[in-house]
Amino acid sequence: MHMKAHYLDILQFRHAARRFHEHKAIAADELDYILEAGRLSPSSFGIEPWQFLVVTSDPLKRQLQSCCYGQEQVGTASAVIVILARKTLRIEDGYVEPLLRRDGDDLYENVLKGFYAGYTDALSPGQLGDYADKQCYLAAMNLMNAAAALGIDSCPLGGFDAEAVMSLLRVDTATFGVSMVLPMGYGTSRPEHRHRRAFDDVVTFVD
Length: 207
What we know:
Layout (H helix, E strand, L loop, with lengths): L1 H12 L14 H12 L10 E6 L2 H10 L4 H5 L2 E8 L9 H5 L4 H16 L4 H25 L3 E2 L7 H7 L7 E10 L13 H4 L5
Antiparallel strand pairs: 1-2, 2-4, 3-4
């Protein structure tokens, strides 16, 4: 019961912080905790199509802010996690096969290889990117909730110049795209009200 109540408290705490205290840093062990929560996120076929770039230096955060249309969250954050979505997800690309083999070569050869290839080979490059991007959002939610459990604020950003972000951070554009920019730190204010639709407006039980 305690854990159930505590998780809802975490969700009530989490909000999109618009600005952070610039000189209040996230402790290294707490940042590691948050990143570990992201690492443990679920993914389709267990392929973990994400990479986390962690930006903590003030000059680089300011440059990154300019790639995000000047949004203050980026420049004032203690740390900014840039979540990359992997593009190289076909069997022949080499990344996926070792992951699919983790439960044994027989399962891979007799089941997973054909099933996975049959699914992903039917996707266009754009659809494959969407497939990876959706999974990165699962990881992002775990990162934000883990931060909230520590009393740390965050703000998921989809507003950025992807090419500028990748150029600044020297991302291999043949391998990755930018899924999300996620600033974290200690917010300077909290919203007075949390607005969510009513339970009965959202949930329908189907018998």
